[in-house]
Design a protein that fits this description.
Residues 1-29 are annotated as: Disordered. The chain is mainly α. The chain has one domain (2-53). The protein has helices at 2-25, 28-53. It starts with a helix and ends with a helix.
Length: 54
């Protein structure tokens, strides 16, 4: 029973790795663009706050 469980867990690990590989194969640009947009939004929010405080 232990062996069966271990092999099943290994298979799960492999499928997980496959998914990660697929994700990493995608252009990182997309993620960077998303992060950039989020940062821009945060900047704008901060600017708006400081303007309101004045």
């Amino acid at each position: 029973l232990k062996q069966e469980k271990a092999s099943r867990e290994q298979q799960l690990d492999y499928s997980h790795l496959e998914q990660e590989k697929e994700l990493s194969d995608q252009p990182l640009d997309q993620a960077l663009v998303k992060k950039g947009k989020q940062l821009e939004r945060k900047k704008h929010e901060l600017e708006n706050r400081t303007q309101q405080e004045k």
